[in-house]
Design a protein that fits this description.
Layout lengths: L2 E7 L3 H13 L5 E7 L5 H8 L4 E5 L4 H10 L6 E5 L3 E3 L5 H9 L3 E10 L2 E5 L7 E3 L5 E3 L2 E2 L2 E2 L9 E3 L7 E5 H6 L12 H11 L3 E12 L10 H18 L4 H21 L3 H16 L1 H10 L7 H13 L9
Protein name: Glycosyltransferase family 2 protein
Keywords: Glycosyltransferase, Transferase
Pfam families: Glycos_transf_2
């Protein structure tokens, strides 16, 4: 089985200097690519000089995560794509259990490894942790992380488990599945596009799996800090996009509930004097409603089904049985 590790880069020479060596050292026969989103720094020169065996794909524009990968993967010959952030350190043998999963489970279409925090390596990392889920309102949570509460890795998720979405920080997908889904939705630019892809995959009957025997370390926020209002804007807007396209529940009720819940989030930002984040939520809703006709057209063309409540109930039961405590509001 041919796996291609594809790292998307935009002006990220420093990240490549820090992390590309670990990927090359532990590629285990997989081909390594860097897909460059029209960088203006010296990233390409650095790769050619320091890692001449790494294959370079040069995109003509910076189309963000979604378009960047859509354009680049058309030029990659492999059965499985590994979409890897440039701020991820991989470990020895991290691909072994991934190969096994795809070879022994033909129904598996998408895989995520265990994602730990590069800065605090005995804890899970916010972006993906031990596999992702959604509630019916489109709010994302993970095993190992809910809101800002992060669990210590004590081996509690060293398992193989069905999940609802896999993190774009380290995301394996069969080429046949990626092609069947027509890739990422390029309207997203960045953030939530992998959740949209996984939701569309679920609605078409593809399986998404977490493999806890494979471990990577993610810096997180290296390309866009969590406190950046642009990230707030993209997360709120793209979450609304994703629900509208994919949910099997009563859409007007979901959107009304989201308006109220997002309003509460905006009020919280106001009380914290974070006016730029409050405005980011307002802009997200304005942009969403201006794009609603397009989204409803996409919805009519895509399958929907009531999803993830069973999986969600299993996850919550696990938390309750283990008596884990989470700080839901800060």
């Amino acid at each position: 089985m041919k796996i291609a590790i594809v790292i998307l880069n935009w002006n990220g020479r420093k990240l490549l200097e820090n992390f590309l060596a670990s990927v090359v050292a532990h590629a285990s026969g997989a081909a390594v690519y860097v897909a460059d989103n029209a960088s203006t720094d010296t990233s390409i020169q650095f790769i050619k000089t320091s890692f001449p065996k790494v294959k370079i794909i040069q995109n003509s524009t910076n189309g963000g995560y979604a378009k960047g990968y859509n354009d680049a993967l058309k030029q990659v010959d492999a059965e499985v794509f590994c979409l890897l952030n440039s701020d991820v350190e991989v470990t020895a043998g991290w691909l072994d259990s991934i190969y096994t999963e795809f070879e022994t489970h033909p129904e598996t279409a998408i895989v995520q490894p265990k994602i730990l925090d590069y800065k605090k390596k005995d804890h899970f990392e916010y972006a993906g942790a031990a596999g992702g889920f959604l509630d019916r309102y489109g709010f994302a949570f993970c095993r190992g992380r809910i809101f800002e509460s992060i669990e210590k890795d004590e081996g509690q998720y060293n398992d193989r488990s069905s999940i609802f979405w896999a993190s774009g920080a380290c995301f394996f997908i069969r080429k046949s599945t990626f092609d069947a889904l027509n890739g990422f939705d390029e309207h997203y630019f960045a953030h939530f596009e992998e959740i949209d892809l996984c939701w569309r995959a679920f609605n078409k009957g593809f399986d998404c799996v977490y493999i806890g025997q494979s471990t990577v370390y993610h810096v997180g926020g290296a390309t866009l800090e969590p406190a950046n209002p642009k990230k707030t804007y993209l997360n709120f807007r793209n979450s609304l996009y994703t629900i509208t396209k994919n949910t099997g529940y009563f859409l007007p009720g979901i959107l009304f509930s989201r308006m109220l819940l997002d309003g509460i989030a905006g009020l919280r930002f106001l009380l914290q004097l974070k006016f730029d984040h409050f405005w980011a939520i307002l802009r997200a809703h304005f942009t969403f409603y201006s794009n609603l006709p397009r989204l409803l057209k996409q919805r009519r063309m895509l399958p929907q089904k009531k999803n993830h409540e069973l999986i969600q109930s299993i996850v919550w039961a696990y938390f309750i049985n283990k008596k884990r405590r989470f700080k839901f509001l800060t």
